[in-house]
Amino acid sequence: MVDWQIKTMADRCQSRGSLFNPGDRVACLIYQDKEASELRRLDLLEDAVADYTLPGELLGRWVRLVGEPDAEAGSAADGLQSAEELFLSLYEAETEAAALTEKQALQHLLALLLERKRVLRPLPPRQVEGTQTYLHVKSKRSFAVPVIEISAPLMARIEDSIGDLIY
Fold first, then answer.
1. Cβ(113)–Cβ(5) below 8 Å
2. Measuring CA to CA, how many Å separate 26 from each of 9, 52, 86, 159?
3. Within the chain, which residues score under 70 in pLDDT?
4. How far apart are CA 139 and CA 25, in angstroms?
5. d(Cα 79, Cα 28) in Å, to the nearest integer?
6. Where in the chain does DSSP place strands (E)?
7. How far is CA 76 from CA 27, 81, 83, 130, in A?
8. What digits encode the pLDDT tens for the residues 11-38?
9. What residue segments make up the domains of the chain, in order of their start?
């Protein structure tokens, strides 16, 4: 399986252009860009979200607190945290039917990635179709993840569509 590196939080508000400072609350938004037909990530100061119009459908949203620069050196742990936050946010936002297949594929692939990293644990019995229940180890929350057949065309479509989310 491809091990994606999810991009960490930007260093500045993408609507205002101002640098994030320690203590700022930053809203990370994942949306389906209508024009590019790709998933995009947008990092905004939390108080700037209400004034910003997304150029597509919101799929996920979470808020992070900016820490000291030394503590956020862009480590692998930050990438894993971003993948975990993206997965959790996919279960909080309602999705229109047009983006549902994309969202379900992301849920499935991120669940597999987070299972490998021991962030999620599959609950028995292991499913080969329908939905697989996963336990989020830290929060003890259960998630019903759609089981999607992984094929080369699906992987190519997902990798193309998540554009600037991975590096």
1. no
2. 9, 14, 14, 26
3. 1-7, 70-77, 79, 97-99, 156-167
4. 21
5. 13
6. 25-33, 38-45, 56-65, 120-122, 131-136, 142-146
7. 20, 9, 11, 32
8. 999 999 999 999 999 998 888 888 877 7
9. 25-165
